[in-house]
Amino acid sequence: MKLPLASGRLVMRGVKDLIHDYRGAIGSVVGLQLVSSLAGVTLPWLLGRVIDRIQAGAASRDWVGQQMVISLVVVAVAAIFSFLAEYRARVMGERIFAHLRDGLVDSVIHLPLSTVESAGTGDLVGRTTRDIERLQFMIRQGIAAILMITTTLVVTFVAAFLTSPLLAFMLLIGPLGVWPLMAWYLPRTVPAYRSSARSWADLSGSVAETLDQADTVDALGLSGKRIAQLDVIIREIWRQERYSAWMRSWLFMGIVCATLSPLIVIVLLGAWLVPSGALTIGAVSTIALYAYQVRGPVWEATFWVDVSMEAYTSLARIFGVAQVEPDREASAHAPAGTSSIVARDVCYAYHSGQNVLHEVSLELHGGETLAIVGPSGAGKSTFGRMLAGIHPPTSGSVTVGGVRLVDLPESELHQQVALVTQEQHVFTGTIASNLRLARPDASDEELWTVLDAVGVDWVRGLGRSDTQTFTALSGPEGKTRAETEKTGLHAEIGGAGMKLNPAQVQQLALARIVLLNPHTLVLDEATSLMDPSAARSLEQSLSRVLAGRSVVAIAHRLYTAHDADRVAVMMDGRIVELGTHDELVAAGGEYASLWESWQQD
């Protein structure tokens, strides 16, 4: 399943909304460019006037000098207003691009996780990288260019008709010649652009999945198959790009002929009509210069039409992200008190008819620690996501205080339950800004409290004025004194800042969750990237900090189950055993076998 594409109507509606929102800025750019274009068409008119006066013998040296001064002023005015129009258009383009980018990020953040998983990595990565890059070029430079081209063409055609209506019609030969070229070109290339975007998304997904699972690929000897898959995708991209380039070559050859035709026709027509007195040499010269001026904008217009088709395809993919239907709808009901989470007959299928959970029922007691264990693929992580309200069950329910988790508003859900997995991310910025994602109003003292609570002591040593110490911790060389003075909570991480190892990233994620202070915490192998002794120490610290809170620990290290109040054993999407560690060991079932194997290892 791929993420949807926005329809043409939705794309045009989005473009119209943008034009409406930025109508003031667009009007300003058009006004400035109008002045520049008027100055631009004045110069050929002055030249034609000088030629006619000289031919008639009515041009004195002083008058010609005055016209030259006026021409210089006109050139200066045209340059100044063209610069101002370009500047304002670029600023407007940056604002529009930021608006679209923020909207895309907002849409991506609120995508249902089930949709992201079914769509695959490549589709979403392609829309947030390559499609955004294509759109970036069009918005940052294309908007300015299109406004200027349109204004220049309109003003030039009006000036040409005022000078000589007969010859002015010849200027239409260029656009009229380009029109059938574009009518031939676009239907043959727009589908190619869409297909190319899909192929690039497939390439991004294949590369990302191969790199993320490199160990598995090597262990199973899948390198050859993965490389062969990449070769197939790359050959398809090459075929599509070659086809598009070939089509552009034919288009550009046609445009050369179409844009040169008006100039040739005007010169020949002028040579025929000037001797009869129907036209003056000055009028022919002026219109010929207008034809030459129009050639550039017409050529640029075809280029930007081509780019706009790529941008249109990218817009359809970007706007399509917002068209994904939510997998839940918040209700006005609030949980009754601080009730426990209860799962009733929960089934879940990633693909229709292929359940990975089968009527799982469980009541989480308030304040207890429940460990969920079982072999890989038993459904532990999927059930953990049900308990965290990430996925709505295919059937059955997961409730807190009588209200389904998926019916809670997002802010309320995070106060009730939070999920921490081994897949965490550090955002570029300070350690404090990363922690305050959980609670923006948290003070530095509160941040230090939660860091100390989970045993994160390495933060206090960050960014000391000793450059050598800081470099040893962070890796990059050549730090300035200003950078090394950013200590502790204000040390920069991510990007060009300090590089954290996976264990440190997990520690910050757990500290962030403690700061969020949810009623229930679901840990899905959240300490798996730490060494066993550090993980056990952190889990013991968490148990003290989260005393009185409910904790669901999905674990592959069985000492977590040993320390838990209860243990649930999952096999093939079902809970097959439930009880305390001692009870399950004494029962001699699946858990006892797992514990015995763990002890031997």
The rounded Rg comes to 34 Å
Number of helices: 22
Task: Give the strand tally.
Answer: 12
Report mean pLDDT, rounded to a whole number. Answer: 80
Give the termini distance in whole angstroms. Answer: 42 Å
Indicate the proportion of strand residues.
5-15%
> Structural class of the secondary structure composition?
alpha/beta
3D shape: elongated
Low-confidence stretches: 465-485
Report helical residue fraction: 55-70%
If strands are numbered along the chain, what order do they take across the biggest sheet? Answer: 6-9-10-3-11-12
Instruction: Give a short account of the largest sheet.
Output: 6 strands, mixed
Oligomer: single chain
Topology:
Blueprint: H1 8-21, H2 23-56, H3 61-109, H4 113-119, H5 121-128, H6 130-163, H7 165-168, H8 173-212, H9 214-219, H10 223-273, H11 281-321, E1 341-351, E2 354-363, E3 369-373, H12 380-387, E4 395-400, E5 403-404, H13 410-416, E6 417-421, E7 429-430, H14 431-435, H15 444-453, H16 467-474, H17 481-484, E8 492-493, H18 502-516, E9 520-524, H19 532-545, E10 550-554, H20 558-563, E11 566-571, E12 574-579, H21 581-587, H22 590-600
Parallel strand pairs: 3-10, 3-11, 6-9, 9-10
Antiparallel strand pairs: 1-2, 1-4, 4-5, 7-8, 11-12
